[in-house]
Amino acid sequence: MAVLRKAGLVTTGYGRLYKLAAHLQPEANGSRLDLGHCVLKLDAEF
Q1: Cα–Cα distance between 35 and 13 in angstroms, integer?
Q2: Element at 15 (helix H, strand E)
Q3: Is 15 inside a domain boundary?
Q4: For the chain, N or C: smaller number of CB within 10 Å?
């Protein structure tokens, strides 16, 4: 996580929680995250 934080991809939140940097937030429908060099598809199947 330290490497991701130094690269500006995540920020630290409350306690030991991390969140995506503001410029990496998913699209409005929340199913895709475009990182520029790759696209992550986020499925919520439980």
Answers
A1: 21
A2: none
A3: yes
A4: C
**What's CA 12's distance to the chain center, in Å?**
12
Q: How many domains does the structure of the chain reveal? A: 1
Ranges of H-type helices in the chain: 2-6
pTM recorded for the entire structure: 0.53
User: What are φ and ψ of residue 29, in 5° steps?
Assistant: -80, -10
Task: For 16, list phi and psi in degrees, rounded to 5.
Answer: -105, 20
- How confident is the model over 1-46, as pLDDT tens digits? 888 889 888 898 788 888 888 887 766 666 777 777 888 777 766 5
The SS3 of residue 24 is helix
Can you read off the two tokens belonging to residue 11?
């920020």
What span, in angstroms and rounded, lies between the C-alpha atoms of 36 and 46?
28
